[in-house]
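Example record for the data management plan.
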Amino acid sequence: MGRTALIVIDMLNPYEHEDADRLTKSVERALPAVSGLRDRARDEDVLTIYVNDNHGDWESSRQELVDGALDGARRDLVEPIVPRDEDLFIAKTRHSIFYATPLEYILGQEEIDRIVLSGQVTEQCILYSALDAYIRHLDVSVPRDAVAHIFENLAEASLTMMERNMHAEVCEAEECRLGERQ
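Corresponding structural encoding:
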């Protein structure tokens, strides 16, 4: 029997950057599905791990990243998805959730063999993380309505690549399996 973890990627964002306007429109649509998955994960006792960009602040803590996002341009997109105390939190420095982070070790310790990727940005961090998970022999699911994009055409191409090249399950959040599986 395998275990699944829900990974929430880069949702702590101050939205004060180039392309923020494009991204926030997509985040507005994805946020209900991302927070719904997070709530389901809690209800089904599924490990939830936030992996968030440190925005170049090498000494930032979890709370500093939360506070910085809440103080940013779109508090309304951050408040509903702030990590709970029981959620694990990892700061990352580049696009992949695996690059220079302890995530692979944590997944191994928790005997996780399947991850559900949610958050942002589909055509960047979600895509690169799915590839890195695939080469680590992890099963990957990506709920298409729980990931946000900057460029819709690139996001669609990325989802197709994840499904075809990485054998990811691309699904709707409501249909995405979280709990234990056979």
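Summary line stored alongside the record: The radius of gyration is 15 Å.
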